[in-house]
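Lecture 7 notes. Example A: sequence first, then its structure tokens.
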Amino acid sequence: MTAKKIILLGGLGNATMVAADVKDARRRGFDEWEVAGYLNDRMQVGEDLEGLPILGAVKDVPRFLDEGYYFINTIYRIDGQDLRLALFESLRIPDERLATFVHPMAYVAGNVTLGPGTVVMPHASIATGTRIGRCCLIINNVFIGHDDVIGDYCHLAPHACIGSYLKIGRGVHIGLNATIHENLTLGDCCALGMGAALLNDMKDYEIWAGVPAKFLRMARKEL
């Protein structure tokens, strides 16, 4: 079986971590996917990034679609997601060309739903009945409880621990080692700081931090 070729949108950080995890999965015999390189607006074509080439800029997606590549998006930020999400959606990548990757050392219950383009990294655990949207990044050692609904373009940083029966909106960031109580609602494009313990609902674009977590300020709205 010939591996399907992935191009990662992004650079040092999320994209290089995904590339390393795909490579590790291949070493373990899970060879459905192979990373071909990156699309990055800040580097030049042909530059090397941790052993893989820069193939072009993000605007070059249509050309690589025509050539049969698959894609994973890693271009997110904590404070104001609007412009980056609008840029990605403007590329109109079909769902069937978004690579959904689960590292073999992750646990995903059999009835979990993962949206196209979502990545689940090593030692993450996703409990039964949870539904996760498109293009989410579930980083190493994240625990996600049962029967959660997580929207598109969410980023869960390492060791985040979230309870059950949660409703999490679009473009949400959950920080390193943050903990979220069950039965809460998190609005679109909100962010929870690292090490926070969230006991209350969060509204759209709110940033919370602390133990217990409290409202800090509003995220930037860019559109």
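Example B, a different protein, same format:
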Amino acid sequence: MQRRDYPQRPEQVYLFGTCLIDLFVPEAGLDAVRLLEREGLKVRFPQAQSCCGQPAYTSGNPESARAVAQAQLDLFDEPWPVVIPSGSCAGMIRHHWPKLFAEDPVSGPKARALAQRVFELAEFLVEVLDVRFPELAARPEQVALHTSCSARREMGTREHGLSLLARLPGVEVLEHERESECCGFGGTFSLKHPDISGAMVTDKTARIAATGCTRFVTADCGCMLNIGSAAAHQGRALSGQHLASFVWDRVKDSES
């Protein structure tokens, strides 16, 4: 698990919602807000936020990525943590925004300061809030956890996802073969190399299905949509759910 200096429990946080959540899986963003509010936090959502710039950056267009980032640097001006329900987008802002502005005497310090306040959702829930669910009734279910490449390698948050799931009574995580491999999405990679991407996700769905579970959980919507759509196309009884929604579904059932 990646170690860093974690802040004390705050009273307020920002939520960076991500493009995919905004456009395709809004319930994941809302459930992330509900989990944070359950812990007594006030969640702020700057309406002018947009993309993290990763598609342009990984396509070799840092100028466009820089323009996207520049438009948002001042949106998170209060010294509150910025919580992101995506390891991929969190990795972009924490690790690559400072690189985009490395030579900029004005925006560089802003990007570096912001990067220090960025947390992936599971990381924040486990390390900063130390969430516990003692009131939850055990509801047995076996699931697989898929961790995106950025979340695993840039953010080091696979262990945070496992830790969060381990705190839910009745949940057993089944490790699938070659779990560390990419699902083939990779943002624009799947568009530029569809045959390779298709082969990768076919292998990924087969490995997850081989565990015997019928649901996989992930903290990145790109991977979730890719694996879930491939499984449906293949006729597999395998569905995906964002980690925030999986956790919140169990919390709301016990607290309603």
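Note on Example B: The chain has two domains: 12-128, 141-255. The mean pLDDT is 95.
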